[in-house]
Amino acid sequence: MSRLGPVLALDVLIDNLTSLRKKTLLEIQESCPHPRESMRRAPYQGALSEARPDFLMCSECGLAEEGWGSFCAFEMHYDGESGIQEIPREEAGRLVRTFRTRREVSELNRKKWLARCREASRGDAEGVV
Ligand SMILES: [Zn+2]
Predict the structure, then answer these.
(1) pLDDT tens readout for residues 56-107
(2) Which among 42, 88, 95, 104 is least buried, having the fewest CB atoms inside 10 angstroms?
(3) 30 alpha carbon to ligand 1 midpoint, in Å?
(4) Integer Cα distance of 9 and 116 in angstroms
(5) What pTM was computed for the model?
(6) Residue range 105-128, pLDDT digits in tens
(7) CA 102 – ligand 1 centroid, Å
(8) At 10, phi and psi to the nearest 5?
């Protein structure tokens, strides 16, 4: 008989907690308005061989968007980066919980927009008696 029973039970517990953490974080990030005052920008870093793009991140929910924001706007704040505080990459990296590509952030924004439209149309339907 294996003596690993308690370890296997802990493995199951860890898997369940990891799934719950992932689901909770996704819900928080999907509902976060990413307010401008909570946004931080980590600057471009690197040499010719190891260039790393800048990224924009929300300190409230930990969502970060990678991409060459200086050249093509970030999805998280497509109206520009004015007023967004720049902090060192290491500091920003400690606040990040999830990195997403510009395309993934765009998909999140689309879901938010659709949810708002559904809520608005429900509100209209309730108003009509
Ligand atoms: Zn956020």
Answers:
(1) 999 999 999 987 755 567 888 767 767 889 999 999 999 999 998 888 888 8
(2) 88
(3) 8
(4) 42
(5) 0.76
(6) 888 888 888 888 898 888 766 655
(7) 15
(8) -65, -35
